[in-house]
Each structure stands twice: as structure tokens, then as C-alpha cells.
Design a protein that fits this description.
The chain is of the alpha/beta class. Strand 7 and strand 8 form a beta hairpin. Helix 1 packs across helix 2. The protein is globular.
Amino acid sequence: MRDVTGRLMLLDTASLYFRAYFGVPESVKAPDGMPVNAVRGLLDFIDRLVKDHRPEHLVACMDADWRPKWRVDLIPSYKAHRVAEEHPAGPDEEVVPDTLSPQVPVIEAVLDALGIARVGVEGYEADDVIGTYTARATGPVDIVTGDRDLYQLVDDARGVRVLYPLKGVGTLQVTDEGWLREKYGVDGSGYADLALLRGDPSDGLPGVAGIGEKTAAKLLAEFGDLAGVLAAVEDPRAKLTPTQRRRLTEARPYLAVAPKVVRVADDVPLPDVDTTLPRTPRDPEMVDALAARWGLGGSLRRLLVTLGA
């Protein structure tokens, strides 16, 4: 990873293009009739983000493997409900709307032509790429995602915050430690423990039976972190109800592996790419060709103006 100084913006790209797909009508089409609502919506997102937050570095982080085997080996239910087709030799195929799948290669081609760094690493999710860039950054970091899992990276001392889209990207929830403490009773480092205790059906994480978000937050407030909660299970003097003690004891096999699954990796072998926000397109001719082929119109023009400003 090259030295990154100044504000770094990390895009959870799939999260954003899914939001664009569902937020922009499918009537937005290329000249050949193929929907390009996700493409144009994502370009509009990036345009607004760059205008409003002026990052000096920008990385579109990708899911090279949206369901890594090393996570599935630990918790087989991990994202299992989102598998369209299993591939023993490689990444499983994810359930994706039929009219979104063809747009993903277009998104990748446009980002590459613009010169916006696009990084995915085999065997890892975009979350892990984001976690590694965040760990290595020396300046402030804005993580743009619709996935609350990344709240675990929030760190006021290092200037790491999550920009969570509420409506498009015009309305963003700026998530810092104060917001997390008010909402969940934990800071960034405690969010992963909260998430694994309560579980997350959207990711196939079972959690601990009978322990929801409020109970998980109370346990962490009382005992500090997951290690403290597990130590309390072994301490007869600890303030646990008999039911909580029993359920946490029964969940020990899950709790032994869940931290590795839930916590994003921070040691991904990142490629050597230039993350500097481009002011001019890397390949102007390709940008023009893609704009004409896919009818990207004002969305691409506005982004080009913003990049050059």
C-alpha cells in the first residue's frame, strides 16, 4: 500500500450500487434498452460524496469474495441464505437481481477509465479491504457504506467515521463514537462484540439465544467486552441471571469462532495502487466510449466536472 496522507474515502462499492439500483428507476436505460440505473446512481453518489467531503484519496472497495471460505468454515450459516449457486473451487454465486448483474462490469469499466482506484483482494470481502486501509491510514478516514458491520471501525481518536446513507447520499448519518454510544451503548471497538452477541439474520449469524441488542449492550456495559462477559460466566459472583449464564454457556462453541467471522480483517495484502482522487480521467477516450455506449449522460459529465474542480 502506498503512503496515504490526507483524507481517505473508502467506498463499500457493492453496498452503494445495490442502493443505487433500488433507488433509481429501471426506466433509466442505455441506448440498447439495458437498465443502467445502478451505474448512473453510483456515479451520482460519488459525485455528491466528492463535492460534499472533498477527499484527497478515494478507493472503491470490491467484494472479490463476498462469502470467504475461511469465514464459512467457522460458521457454515454465514450468508448461506444469499447463495444462488455453490462453487467448491471458487467464490459462491450470490443472489443478485437479473438486471443488476450486467451493470457491475460497466461500473468497473467506468471506474477504471476515470482512474478511481478499485481494489478487491481474492479471498476477502470489501469490508476486509476497508478494514486494512483504515488500519494503515495516517490521516482521517470516511467509510461510506450501508452496512452497519463497519461501525466497528469508528475511532474518534484517529478520525475514522462511517457515512451511512439514509436517503441517497444527500442525507448521510455521520457515525462517530458519540453517536454509537447514544444509539447502542458501545464505542466502535465494542460494536463487533455487540453484533456477535445479538446475531445478525442478514448475515446468517445466529447470535446467543435470548440475547438481543439491549441485553448485549447491558452485558458489555457491565463486563467491558466479550472476554469480560465470558469471564463473568465462570464467576458465580457475577451479576448474570441463571438464564443468561446458561445461554452464554451453551453458546460457547459459537462465541469461540464468531469474533474472527464478525471482525473485519486488517491484514489484507493490498495491491500497490495510486489512491489519489483523479482530477482528469486516466483514459479519456474510453470514458467517452463508455458514456456513448451506455448512455451515462449527465451523471458522468457532472462527476468529471467535480473531479476537475
